[in-house]
Amino acid sequence: MTTTRSTAAPAASGTIPVPAATRGSTRGWRDPRLAAGIVIVAVCVLLGSRILAGADDTVAVWSARHDLTAGSVLARSDLEPVRVRLTGASAGRYLPAGSPLVPGSRVAHDLAAGELLARSAVASGTSRRLVEVPLSVAPDDLPASVHRGATVDVWVTPKVVPAGEDRPRARLALEGVVVVGVPHGGDSLAPRTTQQVIVGVEPGASADLADALGQLADGRVVLTRRAG
User: Fold this and answer.
1) Phi–psi pair at 170, nearest 5 degrees
2) What does pTM read for this prediction?
3) Per-residue pLDDT reduced to its tens digit, 87-99
4) Domains in the chain and their CATH numbers?
5) pLDDT tens digits for 89-134?
6) Which of 36, 79, 85, 184 is the most exposed place for a label (fewest CB within 10 A)?
7) Cα–Cα distances in Å, from 5 out to 9, 25, 29, 95, 103?
8) Is there a contact between 151 and 223 (Cβ–Cβ < 8 Å)?
């Protein structure tokens, strides 16, 4: 912005007045309006960055860097942090990035590369490799919330009513076992009569497993999921 400065020339006696000469001058960097503009821009940038930071509601959690198999020892090099948006009950389901791993921790079930690391997917260092037991369950007898890592009880209803009983009574075949796999069916459009579910049983429970397998072969399998 420029201002004009005028210098009045003395008028000589008996002569016509001559208009005063004008010359421009430029305001320097000390102009208070320039300083005020810089302050306003800086405040806007600061407020904008804070608003954007507050709008980021994502959290950092661990994910598998590559495919991991059940029973393998879990190391920090197997994981990488990713930022995801979690809401509701899923917020506490996954391990936050930076959480220390207990030495000797193992993978409770198979993990694909890029899959988020759920708390239920990490077994303590004292855990041993589980014995995988396949189950064939009717869709109506399988809760929709059953997934890998879920803890379930396996009940069996005998097909034949035992003597002395008026109706079949379900018996607990396996208690507190972990689901290590729920294979997806093919692309067939035909309705499925059963769904395969694979549960993991501790190797030391071989005697109980033998009895459970006998019950499973002669009855209707029903799964109940333990919440949490």
Assistant:
1) -65, 145
2) 0.46
3) 766 667 888 888 7
4) 59-123 (3.90.1210.10), 131-185+193-226 (no CATH)
5) 666 788 888 878 877 788 877 888 899 988 888 876 554 567 888 9
6) 184
7) 13, 8, 20, 73, 82
8) no
